[in-house]
């Protein structure tokens, strides 16, 4: 064959391979929000919101102009969902302030955020593996590994950084009297999950600022938490695209569970029964009208796409509404499936263990997600869908997507 022809064919092959590779959605991003939607998001008043009695379509534009399942449109649609969640549920997550400094001294990370001459400081005692690094890292809510066993991370040489959320806002906040309120007194009405996710993002800012002193790999960053902290992990992962892996453990209502589905179950954490201080007070106008929410929590999870998410459940605890969580997970997974990356989303709902204590039976799937998305091992299987709800008709909640809601 002519050398010129061979060379031409080689160039064409390389171009085609590069083109195929470029179509694979990224595993993580370099910025907190890579594609902020600068157009006006439609956010109707409560009495103007339509009733949607099934799970809302994550691909449908907020203005009712249609839908798109093309990945190139997902960044804009993701920001529409973010705007809806902030407007109707948790309040605004403040932007990154201009004045942030950080230090890493004596194994302790300190991040100082200054707004209007007031300062808030985040403090974390970092647990580093032995060696030179850089190490993948997990942010655990409350402690370095969250409620997961520390050895899961330590055995894989993953750094552990606790997120001391009380530095930002207490578990049962007193509105207007929390550390973050000194920085943003005008946001006294914000829910805890807006404040806490803001704090996680500022902690990540601090990690970036001390990158020369702290040997961690910020392209392989995870967050995890359980129960109310599981919700926290979900919001943090949804609202910060620098997080490569989110592990939300037993997050219940306000977490993985969908408000609409939970209304059809028994004594579970519904919108009307959840903690008022975790959300905006205004959210509770939907207590008896959850069908008027323009979103639901399958879309909170979908905001994490195309990055990785593992949801863990425990059906022994009725309050967690895990049947609702299962339906919500099935709905959210369709987003990852649509983009051809179904292996980046998994859920495991397993009974027979105390709340927030990982059973041995769930360790393999947790380990698999850590191996693939923190350590880069592509040979592990992360197609995880474990649950006890074989008789639950989850399709009825989403079969209208792309058509009218009937």
Category by helix and strand content: alpha/beta
Radius of gyration: 21 Å
Shape verdict? globular
Strand order in the largest sheet = 5-4-6-7-8-9-10
Give the topology string: H per helix, E per strand.
Answer: HHEEEEHEHHEHEHHEHEHE
Distance between the termini: 62 Å
Strand content: 15-25%
Tell me the helix content. Answer: 25-40%
Largest sheet: 7 strands, parallel
pLDDT averaged over residues: 93
Number of strands: 10
Poorly predicted tracts of residues: 1-22
Separate helix tally:
10
Q: Brief overview, please?
A:
The chain is 28% helix and 16% strand. The chain is an alpha/beta fold.
Question: Can you characterise this structure?
Answer:
The protein is an alpha/beta fold and 406 residues long. Helices cover 28% and strands 16% of the residues. It has 10 helices and 10 strands. The chain has helices spanning 3-22, 74-90, 150-154, 179-183, 192-209, 228-239, 259-262, 297-302, 322-338, 363-373; strands spanning 99-105, 108-115, 118-125, 135-141, 159-163, 216-226, 245-249, 308-313, 345-349, 385-386. The strands form 2 sheets. A 7-stranded parallel β-sheet has the order 5-4-6-7-8-9-10, sandwiched between helices. Strands 1-2-3 form a 3-stranded antiparallel β-sheet. Helix 3 (150-154) links the parallel strand 4 (135-141) and strand 5. The N and C termini lie far apart (62 Å).
């Amino acid at each position: 064959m002519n050398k010129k022809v061979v060379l031409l064919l080689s160039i064409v092959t390389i171009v085609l391979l590069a083109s195929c590779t470029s179509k694979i959605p990224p595993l993580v991003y370099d910025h907190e929000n890579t594609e902020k939607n600068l157009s006006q998001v439609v956010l109707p008043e409560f009495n103007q919101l339509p009733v949607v009695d099934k799970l809302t379509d994550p691909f449908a534009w907020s203005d009712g102009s249609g839908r798109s399942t093309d990945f190139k449109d997902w960044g804009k649609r993701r920001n529409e969902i973010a705007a809806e969640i902030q407007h109707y549920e948790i309040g605004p997550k403040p932007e990154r302030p201009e004045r942030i400094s950080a230090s890493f001294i004596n194994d302790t990370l300190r991040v100082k955020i200054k707004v209007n001459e007031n300062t808030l400081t985040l403090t974390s005692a970092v647990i580093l593996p032995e060696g030179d690094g850089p190490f993948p890292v997990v942010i655990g809510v409350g402690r370095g590994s969250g409620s997961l066993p520390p050895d899961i991370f330590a055995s894989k040489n993953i750094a552990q950084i606790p997120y001391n959320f009380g530095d930002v806002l207490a578990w049962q906040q007193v509105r207007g009297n929390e550390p973050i309120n000194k920085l943003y007194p005008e946001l006294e009405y914000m829910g805890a999950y807006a404040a806490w996710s803001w704090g996680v993002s500022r902690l990540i800012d601090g990690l970036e600022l001390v990158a020369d002193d702290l040997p961690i790999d910020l392209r392989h960053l995870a967050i995890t938490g359980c129960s109310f902290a599981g919700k926290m992990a979900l919001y943090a992962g949804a609202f910060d695209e620098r997080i490569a892996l989110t592990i939300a453990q037993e997050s219940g209502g306000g977490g993985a569970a969908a408000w609409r589905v939970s209304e059809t179950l028994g004594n579970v954490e519904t919108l009307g029964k959840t903690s008022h201080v975790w959300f905006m007070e205004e959210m509770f106008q939907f207590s008896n009208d959850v069908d008027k929410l323009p979103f639901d929590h399958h879309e909170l999870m979908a905001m994490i796409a195309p990055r990785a998410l593992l949801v863990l459940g425990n059906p022994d605890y009725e309050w967690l509404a895990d049947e609702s969580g299962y339906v919500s997970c099935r709905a959210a997974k369709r987003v990852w499936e649509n983009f051809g990356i179904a292996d980046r989303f998994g859920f495991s709902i397993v009974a027979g263990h105390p709340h927030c204590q990982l059973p041995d039976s769930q360790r393999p799937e947790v380990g698999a997600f850590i191996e693939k998305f923190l350590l880069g091992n592509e040979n592990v299987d992360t197609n995880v869908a474990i649950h006890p709800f074989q008789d639950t008709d989850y399709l009825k909640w989403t079969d209208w997507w792309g058509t009218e809601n009937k």
